[in-house]
């Protein structure tokens, strides 16, 4: 499990496997609590990461979105949608974080 996680998250999972398992179970329960599709959940998580200004989380959800078959253009649209609520500078920053991932593909 922790071998698949980059950076600090992988370190935490390796050092505290019981804690990581509980965290993972909570995420699974939250995902199953409603009717959103996996695609919708990934895009919402990306939007939340953008709103939190978490570059690492934006990278993570962008990578995961691509691996789940979400088009790079759709990931970038989430950043564009942030212009209204978060402002142009935040949306531009988010777009660059998404590009960090999509430009590697």
Number of H- or I-type helical stretches: 7
Helix residue percentage: over 70%
Q: Please state the overall shape, judged from the principal axes of the Cα atoms.
A: globular
Average predicted local confidence, pLDDT: 93
Using only CA atoms, what is the Rg?
A: 14 Å
Give the amount of beta strand, in percent: under 5%
Q: Roughly how many Å apart are the termini?
A: 24 Å
Low-confidence stretches: none
* H-E order: HHHHHHH
Structural class: mainly alpha
DSSP, total strands: 0
Q: Domain count, please report it.
A: 2
Query: What characterizes the major β-sheet?
Result: none
Domain Carboxymuconolactone decarboxylase-like: 19-94
Pfam family, one: CMD
Protein name: Carboxymuconolactone decarboxylase family protein
InterPro entries: AhpD-like (IPR029032), CMD-like (IPR003779)
Secondary structure topology:
Layout: H1 7-15, H2 17-31, H3 38-51, H4 55-67, H5 72-81, H6 83-86, H7 88-102
Helix pairs in contact: 1-2, 3-4, 4-7, 5-7
Pfam families: CMD
Protein name: Carboxymuconolactone decarboxylase family protein
Domain Carboxymuconolactone decarboxylase-like: 19-94
Description:
- The protein has two domains: 34 residues, no CATH class; 70 residues.
- It is mainly α and 105 residues long.
- This is Carboxymuconolactone decarboxylase family protein.
